[in-house]
From TrEMBL:
InterPro entries: CbiX-like, Sirohydro_Cobaltochel/CbiX. CDD domains: CbiX_SirB_N (cd03416). It comes from Gordonia sihwensis NBRC 108236. One of its GO terms (molecular function) is metal ion binding. SUPFAM superfamilies: Chelatase. The keyword Lyase applies. This is Ferrochelatase. Gene3D superfamilies: 3.40.50.1400. Keywords: Lyase, Metal-binding. The keyword Metal-binding applies.
């Protein structure tokens, strides 16, 4: 079986490199080939790669931290056009394993149990993705035994949550004298992580990256994927 890891896409080479490194780590852990594609900004797309992957079924793993539009609509559309057996694994988040990765990154950054905590996500206008981020905030709050506020790194006018700098400023006003720690709910370095770094928080965790629980979550999602869907194969086409 082949795994196709599908990520959002970014012009920042650090983000692209991280996805390929994640694919390598998943492949090493599972001892099976893992290809990489993207749904936006850069290629190749899933539709570009699916016809040329090795013969046999393909499990598509969304490298997304929430089940937003790209997962439910864009990736699904690529799979619907596939002419081979495919199945879609769940997105990486929300997950207790990703919550553990968040706590690891916070501890590495020097956060303590006395800090006020902000969960900083990329941001989404999709209501399903927003609920997933809220679930992650609840999971993190339970693990840390402290309230967790959500903030978005994006600057969309229709965002349901404030920006990271505004959230940090509001927490300073609400809890004077208390340190503020930002948990980065991002996979890789890039523009959004820079916005977290510039937010004015006392502690800013690094992106989740290749933290062991992230790889654990990815492998678990592959194992929990549904049944393969057989697709009709036109005459002369490669399965």
């Amino acid at each position: 079986m082949t795994v196709l890891l599908v990520a959002h896409g970014t012009r920042d080479p650090r983000g692209v490199e991280l996805i390929y490194r994640l694919a390598d780590e998943i492949g090493r852990r599972r001892d099976e080939p893992v290809a990489v594609s993207f749904v936006d900004v850069v290629g190749p797309s899933p539709s570009d790669l699916l016809p040329d992957l090795p013969d046999g079924p393909v499990t598509v793993l969304p490298a997304f931290l929430a089940r937003g539009h790209h997962v439910r609509v864009d990736i699904a559309a690529h799979l619907a056009a596939a002419r081979r057996p495919v199945r879609l694994a769940p997105a990486l988040g929300p997950s207790q394993l990703l919550t553990r990765a968040l706590t690891i990154r916070l501890a590495e950054a020097g956060a303590t149990s006395d800090d006020a905590v902000v969960l900083a996500a990329a941001g989404s206008a999709d209501p399903v993705a927003q609920r997933d981020i809220e679930t992650t905030a609840h999971l993190l709050s339970a693990r840390l035994a402290t309230p967790v506020r959500i903030a978005f790194a994006s600057t969309r006018a229709d965002s349901p949550h404030a920006s990271v700098p505004d959230t940090v400023a509001a927490l300073r006003a609400d809890t004077p004298g208390r340190r503020i720690a930002v948990a980065s709910y991002l996979l890789a370095d890039g523009l959004f992580q820079q916005r977290l770094d510039d937010s004015g928080a006392d502690v800013v965790a690094r992106p989740l990256g290749l933290a062991a629980p992230v790889v654990d979550a990815a492998c678990g999602r592959i194992d929990s994927a549904g049944e393969f869907t057989a697709r009709p194969v036109p005459a002369g086409s490669r399965v």
